[in-house]
Design goal:
Blueprint lengths: L20 H12 L6 H8 L9 H10 L2 E6 L4 H9 L4 E5 L8 E8 L5 E4 L10 E4 L1 H7 L1 E4 L3 E4 L2 E6 L14 H12 L2
Antiparallel strand pairs: 1-8, 2-3, 2-8, 3-4, 4-5, 6-7
Helix pairs in contact: 1-2
Length: 190
């Protein structure tokens, strides 16, 4: 278990269309990494479309395009989400908070010791709210993505971290893991 140094500094955003939850969630994660981007900037690269949204491959390519590293894990664990967010790393997920026939992308910014998950959700029915606080038991029931009528991808998670610092240094190049984490956190929380 990692020691908590931060939580992901994810801004609350509302998606501009019904099909850009991936672009908006990715935008929030990139902003948490210090990138000055908008939903529109991200969607120009990601290419979310009506009745289709975007794929995980498109999300990974977009994260890389904006100079970040994406780590996609399927199935991820709640402990993985906690380890990432405890280091200040935002994590995109697919889940189904309203029980609809499709999944929805959001960004996890924190996991409490008891497993309660804090999620920036760009399409909450109440337009005045951008964050959900979900108990662990409820979260696990919703953390999945249906594929067609017969398959389910359980617990998808895409951690998004800086690949290169603003001064051009590759973040993961250091052999000192603690130094790497301190450098990455310094740029995440200016």
């Amino acid at each position: 278990m990692t020691s908590k140094t931060a939580r992901a500094d994810v801004p609350g955003l509302a998606q501009q269309t019904q099909f850009t939850c991936m672009a908006t969630s990715c935008c929030a994660a990139l902003r948490a990494c210090g990138k000055d981007v908008s939903e529109s900037d991200v969607n120009k690269v990601m290419g979310c479309q009506a009745m289709r949204g975007a794929s995980w491959e498109e999300a990974l390519a977009t994260v890389q395009y904006f100079g970040c590293r994406g780590t996609l894990v399927v199935p991820a664990t709640l402990q993985m989400l906690k380890d990432w967010t405890d280091r200040g790393v935002p994590v995109m997920i697919a889940w189904n908070p309203e029980g609809r026939p499709w999944s929805h992308a959001s960004t996890v910014c924190d996991v409490e010791e008891d497993g309660t998950v804090h999620i920036m959700d760009p399409n909450i029915p109440d337009p005045s709210i951008n964050f959900r606080k979900i108990p662990k038991e409820e979260f696990f029931k919703k953390w999945m993505e249906p594929v067609g009528d017969k398959l389910i991808i359980r617990r998808p998670a895409l951690a998004i971290e800086l690949e290169v610092t603003p001064d051009g240094r590759q973040v993961r190049a250091s052999s000192n893991a603690n130094l790497t984490t301190r450098v990455a956190t310094r740029f995440l929380y200016r």
